[in-house]
């Protein structure tokens, strides 16, 4: 069977109607690809519409403040994507006169754009003959051709890209790349795909060898690190509170949070109280401390699990630099903190 023709025919009949498939504008393609990294389409779609509405052109995005961008990104996670997005928009707008590079080699030089994203923009916007290799492509090709290469290895992408390039129709690379990714997203799914209705089942080696659920091969990730965050919700006589900006590199860089006590393990009331007094966050006398047990939670990130607990600390008089709740909500927060504000304030 001809894998390429079958795949494209399947795509034309089954593809999802996604907004970024109705354009070859590299700005819109770039936005969608950055947003869909580590993110499901259903989750990313509202953000795509929000960004294209707030920032119709790369100039609009470039002229926005970082806080505006982070606020609009709030809840999508992996916030370094948003910071890189903003910096790249500024570079394209102010250094390249708003014109995106029209080829893979120049696109990959832009901040936040890696192999996959550069290939996607190059092929979808400029029809360049460059294969797009993501998790979906690894899965489809490894199963169809029974490839046992560990996709966690750095050399795997080169091997799979070479195979995809061989299969790619050189007169229409964009549709092939779209078809391959879409097929992996909705037909050749990671767990228990319905191979009985698969248009590639007659030639799929993994199906013949009963190895569908064994491919692709991927070595296990390192165990996630546990971190314990104790957020201090100060509340003064006006029920206003204080927040701070995370300036350290790492998770949630440049987002806002409440004063934080990070501990090596979960702490009880006495330890928290002692640590709170030692930190000397504020000068106001404390009238009460309460642990908000019902909203303690584990927030799972790729390489770490955050055990988050909120503590309410009432103080007398008014806090210096305190904010009203409606003002406080306008700042960009990690979604776990913003949800706390929305649901449990004051």
What do you see in this structure?
The protein has helices at about 5-15, 25-35, 40-55, 60-65, 65-75, 80-95, 105, 115-125, 135-145, 155-165, 175-185, 205-210, 270-280, 325-330, 335-345, and strands spanning about 225-235, 245, 255, 260-265, 285-290, 295-300, 305-315. With about 350 residues, the chain is of the alpha+beta class. The chain has two domains: about 5-130 and about 150-185, Endonuclease III, domain 1 (Orthogonal Bundle), CATH 1.10.340.30; about 225-345, Nucleoside Triphosphate Pyrophosphohydrolase (Alpha-Beta Complex), CATH 3.90.79.10. The strands form two sheets. Strands 1, 4, 5, 6 and 7 form a five-stranded mixed beta sheet that branches. A hairpin with a 3-residue loop joins strand 6 (about 295-300) and strand 7. Helix 1 (about 5-15) packs across helix 11, helix 2 (about 25-35) crosses helix 3 and helix 9 (about 135-145) packs across helix 10. The radius of gyration is 24 Å and the shape is elongated. The protein starts with a helix and ends with a helix. The relative contact order is 0.11.
Termini separation comes to 64 Å
CATH class of the largest domain: Mainly Alpha
- State the secondary-structure class: alpha+beta
Question: What gross morphology would you assign?
Answer: elongated
Radius of gyration: 24 Å
Beta-strand residue fraction:
5-15%
State mean pLDDT (0 to 100 scale): 94
Would you report the number of β strands?
7
- Named at the architecture level, the CATH assignment of the largest domain is Orthogonal Bundle
Oligomer: single chain
């Amino acid at each position: 069977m001809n894998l390429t023709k079958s795949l494209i025919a399947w795509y034309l009949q089954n593809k999802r109607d996604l907004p970024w498939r109705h354009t070859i504008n590299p700005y819109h393609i770039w936005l969608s690809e950055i947003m869909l990294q580590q993110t499901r389409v259903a989750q990313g779609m509202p953000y795509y519409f929000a960004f294209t509405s707030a920032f119709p052109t790369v100039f609009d995005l470039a002229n926005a403040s970082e806080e505006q961008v982070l606020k609009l990104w709030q809840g999508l996670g992996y916030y370094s994507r948003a910071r890189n997005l903003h910096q790249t928009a500024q570079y394209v707008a102010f250094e390249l006169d708003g014109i995106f590079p029209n080829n893979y080699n120049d696109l990959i030089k832009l901040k936040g754009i890696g192999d996959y994203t550069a290939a996607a923009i190059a092929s979808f916007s400029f029809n360049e003959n460059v294969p797009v290799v993501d998790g979906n492509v690894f899965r489809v090709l490894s199963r169809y051709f029974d490839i046992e290469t560990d996709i966690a290895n750095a050399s795997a992408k080169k091997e799979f890209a070479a195979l995809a390039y061989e299969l790619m129709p050189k007169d229409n690379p964009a549709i092939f790349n779209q078809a391959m990714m879409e097929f992996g997203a909705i037909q050749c799914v990671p767990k228990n795909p319905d191979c009985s209705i698969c248009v590639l089942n007659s030639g799929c080696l993994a199906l013949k060898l009963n190895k569908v659920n064994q491919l692709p091969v991927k070595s296990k990730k390192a165990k996630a690190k546990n971190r314990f965050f104790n957020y201090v919700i100060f509340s003064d006589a006006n029920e206003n509170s204080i927040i701070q900006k995370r300036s350290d590199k790492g998770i949630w860089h440049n987002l806002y949070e409440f004063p934080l006590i990070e501990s090596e393990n979960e702490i009880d009331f006495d330890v928290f109280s002692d640590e709170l007094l030692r930190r000397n966050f504020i000068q106001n006398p404390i009238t009460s401390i309460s642990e908000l047990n019902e909203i303690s939670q584990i927030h799972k990130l790729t390489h770490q699990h955050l055990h988050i607990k909120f503590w309410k600390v009432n103080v007398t008089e008014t806090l210096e630099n305190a904010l009203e709740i409606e003002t406080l909500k306008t700042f960009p927060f990690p979604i776990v903190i913003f949800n706390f504000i929305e649901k449990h304030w004051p």
